[in-house]
Target: TetR family transcriptional regulator
Amino acid sequence: MGGVSATEHAARTPHVPKQDRSRVTRQRLLAAAVACLAEHGWAGSTVSVVAERAGVSRGAAQHHFPTREDLFTAAVEYVAEERSTALRDLFPDGPADRRAVVAALVGLYTGPLFRAALHLWVAASNEDQLRARVTELEARVGRESHRIAVDLLGADESRPGVRETVQGLLDMARGLGLANLLTDDTARRERVVAQWGTIVEETLG
Amino acid sequence: MGGVSATEHAARTPHVPKQDRSRVTRQRLLAAAVACLAEHGWAGSTVSVVAERAGVSRGAAQHHFPTREDLFTAAVEYVAEERSTALRDLFPDGPADRRAVVAALVGLYTGPLFRAALHLWVAASNEDQLRARVTELEARVGRESHRIAVDLLGADESRPGVRETVQGLLDMARGLGLANLLTDDTARRERVVAQWGTIVEETLG
Model:
């Protein structure tokens, strides 16, 4: 973009269209940003560190993401969208066995994405520049998680209490993610998920 | 302590016994440490900053807490114990109305203590020095919260699923605390707590 003629463009990108290269660079930066946040936290996560990890020049990284806030909020959003898509793909026929859906929903909160999002979230609570961006991002990601949960659980939100049942379930999933931060909480979590899968099944009727 | 004779002691503390002064200093440091963590996060929380906030000399602070890790883990533990006591005092006759107990349990996770603990927790996930200490602390605080929940809910853990029901409830409380970090989530939380109070009541029978 930015004043490159078609001839120059063709000369500089003999094999891959420039837009595709740009998209690939962007995705590599986003994936590296999430991994960096998850491993090193906000204090250890800068555009330079991510550019190096992604094998991209600092200039190219800054072309895509002018500020640190741009890079890391975009990264968490990108991976959240990827995970939402993956979750829907797990249940291609829509509403499914609720105990399996509860387990899959909780699974969203126990990997590197949750860890990265948590670091961003906690950093935002003390940094004004980040706060508004992350608040808006979390609201958007939260609405999408809720929509997926309602769809896959086949929950009828016109019935009293159903909306709050699904919300509480997602809050529980978030709390289970937090419990998995310092230690491997898998064994306990599986027992809790089995029990609450049954409770949600009975409550949704 | 430390080689001060009884005469010196009496001369230096005309009004308040030295042990009491020491205890008061310690408590002021602990309260200041929790407030500091909640407001500024781990990166902004040092022994010096806390000493100044508590109106205590840096030397006195270091006498009580030789390292930063000592100070902040002790602070989170101290306030967690205070809050557990306060929670038990709310229901002096033991098992109480379960919906009220659920609301009070969730309340444990929505104030400055939870915010401080969360900062410590997240910092520990990237700092080896802190990790072992915080893991052990969280296990202890978690066991105590579970014990209080079981007692106040009058839950019979010999029945299958009851233990996991209570654990999931505390996980939900933790997730609700997280949802309250960046915005005031009170209105939504109250609806979720009302619905889940009913679910827990029905499940525990």
Observations:
- The interface with chain B takes residues 39-41, 43-44, 115, 118-119, 121-126, 131, 134-135, 138, 161, 164-165, 167-168, 170-179, 181-183, 188, 191-192, 194-196, 198-199, 203 of chain A (CB under 8 Å).
- Chain A has one domain: 6-204.
- Chain A has a mean pLDDT of 90.
